[in-house]
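Final report, Chapter 2: Outcomes

The project's central promise was a pipeline that accepts a single protein chain and returns its three-dimensional structure in a standardized token representation, suitable for archiving and comparison. That pipeline is now operational. To close this chapter, we reproduce one record exactly as it appears in the project archive, with the input sequence first and the structure output second.
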Amino acid sequence: MTTRADIFSKQPGGESRLAYTCNLGWLDLGHMNPSGPAELWRNMLAGGDDAYIIDAVKINPSAALALAAPRAVLSKLNVPSELIEKNRKFITFRDGARGFKLEYKQSMHKKFGPRRFSRSAGGAYLIRQGLTLEQKKSVALAIYMEVSHGFERMQGSFPQSILTGDSSYSQEDLISNLVGFHIAIGTISRESALIASRVVTEQLAAQIWDREGAVGKMKNLEFKPMFAKSTVNAASFVSVDECLDQPKIPPPFLYSVKPAQKGALFMDYPQF
């Protein structure tokens, strides 16, 4: 849960953990950490073998096996590998194209007394083989957005909400995630993203918090920034609008990749 103290809590790079910016509103530099989306992006680039299931019924009708029995299960039952290959069924898109399986999740970890409480939200997807680099970015973004929404909903549901408070869909969460995604795929560097967003002083950030309330009280369900009503630093010797020379709109890099729609390029991995 983000607190006012986070404005003055320093990250390894010297920046505040929570910062207000002229062009992206509140940013949580923890959510901007690209390690999560970087894992998704690595797996997207790495690809995988064509996904398939094994028709266990054809191999051994009397065996109590599910239709999609994993290869490992069949191997333990000493089913010959050639028989497995003969009875495999590729998982395809509607047009018959094959794909590989990709899984991605986001997790939270909290201490509850002596115990460590962990929960995650994620999904499994079939990714079409042979996508271009731009198509892979588009699919990765769509997956990242979907899982991010799932994670925020999970945080806000019982019993997680007991530990997370008003953290779910806090106004800086999704926009910070989106910046972190672009850092992960190489659209922009962390330093350049902060420069483009124009971070205000900690003094002004604290004033905005005090004037408009905690970031978690104002929910943001979109990957778009929410802006403060005023960016005037009233505590300075002469009141100064720190964002006077800024456009107060998201920098172009933020929407340079469009999320793909499910269907042609990727889809939910079938449940068997």
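Archive annotation: The first helix runs from residue 35 to 46.
This record, like all others produced under the grant, will remain available to the consortium after the project formally closes.
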